[in-house]
Amino acid sequence: MKRLNQAIERISAIDWNSIGNRESRSHVHLCSEYLRRASIFSKKFPGSCIYPFIVISNSITKSEENFEKFQVLDKINNSYHRVIVDSYLELNALIDEGNQIALENQDLFEPVIKLYERGGSFYKRGGFVNVAGESFEIVDRTNMKPHDISDQKLDQIDIEQDMEILWGNEDNIVIENYLEHALNRINLINFKFEEAEKNSHLILANEFLKRSAYFERFSYLDLSLESPFVNVAEALGYSPILEIEKISPTVSSIQNEIIKSICIQYLELSALVDQGVLRARKYYNVYEPLIKLFERGGEIDLVDNNIVVGSTIVPLSDWYVYAMTRPEYDISIESLNALDS
After folding, report:
1. CA atoms of 318 and 314, how far apart (whole Å)
2. How far is 217 from 135, CA to CA, in rounded Å?
3. Residue 142's CB: how many other CB atoms inside 10 A?
4. C-alpha span between 35 and 324 (Å, rounded)
5. Which pLDDT belongs to residue 162?
6. Beta bridge partners of residue 315, listed in sequence order
7. Is the pLDDT assigned to residue 21 strictly greater than 80?
8. 177-189, pLDDT tens digit by residue?
9. CA dist., res. 223 & res. 235, Å (int)
């Protein structure tokens, strides 16, 4: 019972209600390795199961163990997860019973169990296995090279993803001091917003909403998605103290509270980048579309639970779906000038 008890402990430690709430590159890595192992196993022991959802009792033999007594299985409501977990437990029970085939394939489910332990999941649809935004065609993977699925390797993959800079500098501007650069930009903006509405205004607002939605959904900080106007620095766990009245009288004089708040958050995030906070650098350009919007005479506001950009109104309750269904935009100055010409 040693192997089975260890397997039960691992399954019991997984938060099955949170499976699939986050997407990481390590999930793709683990799924790929599981598909490779499942492909090799299915070729040797086909059974009456649908790849990659292997049913051990059909492929090898049925264990003598009664699995109905394990209450942890009642917490698994997803049928895909349940098939794999049932087979994982049955494989380990067979190992305890001395089954030679089970012993030779004892690591078959290790990648997918690690996937669940790291909060990931996959599903099959239309000839593809889908995981963390990636799709694997269901093909023979027996000749693929094995992946390193050590915790060290998986953590490295996710750290590299976490440090990857999003939304690069479209205008190829070299910034040496981020806070100084941000202050210079803000101090040159006319916050009276006396210009007529431009084509670029909605494009820039939409791009901000999309970036904010991405940050709130994929930064794994348990954000509420209630509003796009999230304080990125605060969400990352930092509280930079800037004496706004001293460093930027321009910001202090802004009448619109939403715009004023955005500018302060932009300055705070810039200060964090200067301090070497890597995650701040990763998400630094969340605010870039709005700063460009203000620079081009546009504004954004929150009125009666509606996001207002010029003549466009987006209900606050719909902002996330609206944002995620917008295309990505080129917001380089050259592209924006072309839109407004």
Report:
1. 7
2. 20
3. 13
4. 30
5. 67
6. 306
7. no
8. 999 999 999 999 9
9. 8
CB neighbour class for 200 (10 Å; exposed up to 12, middle 13-18, buried from 19): buried
Phi, then psi, of 273 in degrees rounded to 5:
-60, -45
Bridge partners of 306, per DSSP, are 303, 315
State the pTM of this model: 0.61
- 176 — alpha (psi -120 to 50), left (phi > 0) or beta? alpha
Read out DSSP for 152-192?
HHHHHHHHHHHHSPPS--TT----S-HHHHHHHHHHT--TT
Query: Where on the phi/psi map is residue 234: left (φ > 0), alpha (ψ -120 to 50), or beta?
Result: alpha
CA distance linking residue 227 with residue 212, whole number of Å: 9
Residue 64 reports pLDDT greater than 70: yes
Residues 6+ apart with CB under 8 A from 250: 186, 187, 189, 191
DSSP class of residue 326 equals S
